[in-house]
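Technical note accompanying the year-one report. For the benefit of new consortium partners, we illustrate the data format agreed upon in the data management plan: each record pairs a sequence with a structure-token string. No post-processing was applied to the example shown here.
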Amino acid sequence: MDDDDLCVGSVIANRTKQEMKDMIGMFINLVLYRMKMEANNSFEYLIRKIQQLSSDVIEHSCLPYQHIINSQDQQNHQVLPSTLFQYESLVSSVTAKNNIESSTIEGNYVLAVYFGRDRSHGNGVTALDLTFTISHDYHARTTECFLDCSIDIFQTQNNVDLLANRFQHMLKQLFSSSSSVIHELIYKLSIVLPTEQEFIHQMNNTDISTSYSWLNTIHECFIQQVQLYSQKLALEYCLIRRKARGNHRCTLPSTI
């Protein structure tokens, strides 16, 4: 696999018959989505490609994950997914919503009890390097994203926050822009944050002669020293080099 070859795992309910689901419960199967990213195509094209891939995957979702893995040669095990994608649709009933105790403070509702996803993620364990979950609440008309990251890969919370901020920045480009960015080529999307863009802009517009006057080449340093101490004795470069070589070989300069 290379950087453009993506393999993402997802879960799917694998009880095709409702009566089997009622008798023995739901069975969750891990399915694989593998595709090539084509930066020279638009985001809209990518969405259509993923939709077609999803249809193909669902058609064969009954095939057990372990069977897929065992059918691969040892050398192809590198295609195993390190990223898990999940989509949650929270369509709670009206009765459940009425059971939530709430209080009003200056016109804003504050929920006292939360019957939903555990947002703490405090168990300290993640199955894969990265788990990305999109949670959509039908009644609240809100969509939230969750990142569960392996500490072995991301190491610090700052790295996770940086990844989340870059993802949010890309979403704003795609869906908050007045221009039709979804029709643009993917490689034109930028992961550079606005603060980073401002820093780059300031660096490009900085007067090097004033702010970085201390950064000089070697010959410029020699010239500055000569101008500052014009009455001092100086050695020519050839004499310095000859003396250095003489000391290195432990011989007198006259014998070279």
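Partners are asked to follow this layout when depositing records. The CA atoms of residues 87 and 96 lie 21 Å apart.
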